[in-house]
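Handoff note, outgoing to incoming analyst
You'll be picking up this chain. Sequence as last confirmed:
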Amino acid sequence: MNRIKNNTRMPRNSESTNETDVHADVCRLIANSNKPPEPKYENSWTAGVQMFVSFLLAGYGMVAASLLLDKVQHWNVFQVVSEVYILVPALLGLKGNLEMTLASRLSTHAHLGHIDNNLGSLIVGNMCLIQCQAVLVGFLAAMAAVAMGWIPDGQFDIHHAMLLCASSVLTASFASLVLGLIMIGVIVLSKQMDINPDNVATPIAASLGDLTTLALLSWIASLLHRTIGSSILLPSIIIIGGLILVPVCGYIAYENKFTRQALDEGWVPVVSAMVISSAGGLILDYTVSNYSGIAVFQLVINGIGGNMVAVHASRLSTSLHTGQKMDSVLSNTTKLLMVMVIPSQLIFIHTIEYLKAGHTSLTPIFILIYMSAALLQVFLLLTISHYMVVGMWKLGMDPDNSAIPYLTALGDLLGTALLGIAFHVLYAIGDKDSDLGD
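Most recent structure output, in case you need it:
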C-alpha cells in the first residue's frame, strides 16, 4: 500500500479516470476494490512446460528467419541496394522490442481482467500505439542504415535512401498490424485455455516478429525496387502517408486510458536499446573477423537469453500489478528459467550442427565452455531484470512498457561479449585456427 500512497493520486470522483493513465487505474483497483484480482496458483511443472514449449517455438522461428535471410540475400535488391543488410538487424531488433512490450502489457491486462471487460478499448488503443511507434521506429532505423551506408564511402544515393525509408516504414506498419492482431489473439486464446500468457506471449512475439518482419521487408523492398525504377514519387507518397499516420494514431493512443502511459514512456527504452545493441554489434564485428564459427551461435545465445529474460520481466511486472508476493514469484521463475537454459541450448546448437549451419564441431570441451557462457548470461540477465523491474515500479514507471527493450538489448551485449570470451578461451586451449573444435 505504500507504493500506492506514494506514487498515485486518489480519484476525487468516479469520473476522474479520463485524467489518469492505466497505471493509476490499476493502482486504484488494487487499493479500493473489495475484491482485488486473486492470482491463480500456478504449478511449477505446468509453468515450466508452457515456457519450454514457447522457447522451442521461438527458437525454431529464429532458425527459420536465419534460413530465410540466407535465401533472400541473393535477391537483386540485396545485391544492388546493399544498405538493406544494415537495415535488417536494426529493424528486426526495434520491431521485436515493440511486439514484446505489447505482449507483456496485454498479459498484465489479462491477469487484471481488463480483457474480459474492455477488450475493444484495449485493441483500439494498443493497435494505434504500436502503429505510431512502428512507423517512427521504422523511419529511424532506415535513417541509421542510410547514414551507416553513406559514411564509409562518402557517396549518397537519393534513390537508395528513399527506397530504404519507404520499405522500412511500410514493413513496420504492416508487420505491426499483423503481429498486433496475432498477439491479441494469443493472449485471448491463452486466457480461454487457462494458460498463463506471461509464459508464452513474449517468446511467440519474438519468433513471429523476426520471421514476419524479415519476410515483409524482403518482399516489399524487392517489389519497390522493381517498380519504381529511378522515380522517387511512390516512395515519397509512402513516407508522407506514414508521417500522417503517426500523429493520428498517437492522438488515439493518448486519449485511450490503457495506452497513454505506454505512449509517454515507450520511446526512450526502444531508442536506448538500439544504442546498447549497437555496442554488441561492434563486439560481434571484431569477433567474427577472428572466429568464423561464432556468428550462428551468437543468434542462439542472444535469442534464448532475450526470450528468457523477457518472460522473467513479464511475470515480475504482472506480480507487481496484481499484488502477488514477489519472493515466491522471483524464486520459482528464476529456478525454472535457469534449469531450462541447458536443454534449450543443447537442442538448438545440435540443430545447427544437423543443418550444417556452423563452422564449429560440438566437442565436449566446446559444449562445456559454451554452456558456461550461456548460464552466466542468463543468470546476470535475471538478476538485472529483478532490480530493474522493481526499481521502475518504485519510480512510478510501468515495467511492462520500459523494461523489456533494455533487458533484451543487454542480453545481446552480454551474450555477444561472453561468447567472444568463450571462443577466445577455446582458441587458447585448443585449435589455433578460426574453425574451433574441428
